[in-house]
Amino acid sequence: MRINQSAGKSALLLPQDKNNAAEPIVIVVDDDAAVREGLSELILSAGFQPVSFASTQEVLNAVDILDSPGCLILDVHMPGASGLHLQHRLAESGIAKPIIFLTGHGNIPMTVQAMKAGAVDFLTKPVSDQTLLDAVIAAIALDGARRAEAIIVKRNLERLGTLTHREREILREVVTRGRLNKQIAFDLGISEVTVKLHRANVMRKMEVRSIGELIRAWETLPPTMRESGGPGI
């Protein structure tokens, strides 16, 4: 699939149908049209879908593309906002898109800044095709892992939301303190039978079969929620 490219505008290589919508998209951001074209051809040859932009602002204007699976290949020095600035903006917006920096003018402080901010790699032009593709594959794998984790977190938050206040109290006693039914009953001033009933409800609503699974589900929740005990605890 080829789309004409004009000076100052991005060349978009987008999926042609909905069946391709979930395929990894590699977003290339570079003000050099020749670089964008070369990287797009390389990415296509590796079986991934390229989308290219000439500036960081164009990426921010097309924010929907950032929701798709994949990664970013960013030049550092471009007219307007730099690639490092875009990395910062995305982080501020909570967009954990894996980023590979590819630049002809890198230095050690710049590399350290980018890597500390979560970049997958910081490569200097010229770079071999295989080195770049290895970085892209690693970035896409990282994105896939993050997305899978996000699905699990969302699912467990939804399940947590079905618990009553008392069930959440008992959940917290079990997973954070390892308390036995009789200990929980004494602490809460209720019968051990009632604790058993609530605990069974917790297991059923959280869709787990063992305390180990319950603890693992709890540990997927955001740290701030675990520390506070979650809503209503």
UniProtKB/TrEMBL annotation:
The entry's keywords: DNA-binding, Phosphoprotein, Transcription, Transcription regulation
One GO biological process term: phosphorelay signal transduction system
Transmembrane segments: none
Keyword Cytoplasm: no
Modified residues (4-aspartylphosphate): 75
Entry-linked Pfam families: GerE (PF00196), Response_reg (PF00072)
Any one GO molecular-function label of the UniProt entry: DNA binding
Domain Response regulatory residues, every copy: 25-140
Record-annotated HTH luxR-type domain positions: 156-222
Keyword Phosphoprotein among UniProt keywords: yes
InterPro entries in UniProt: CheY-like_superfamily, Sig_transdc_resp-reg_C-effctor, Sig_transdc_resp-reg_receiver, Tscrpt_reg_LuxR_C, WH-like_DNA-bd_sf
CDD domains on file: LuxR_C_like, REC_FixJ
Name of protein: LuxR family transcriptional regulator
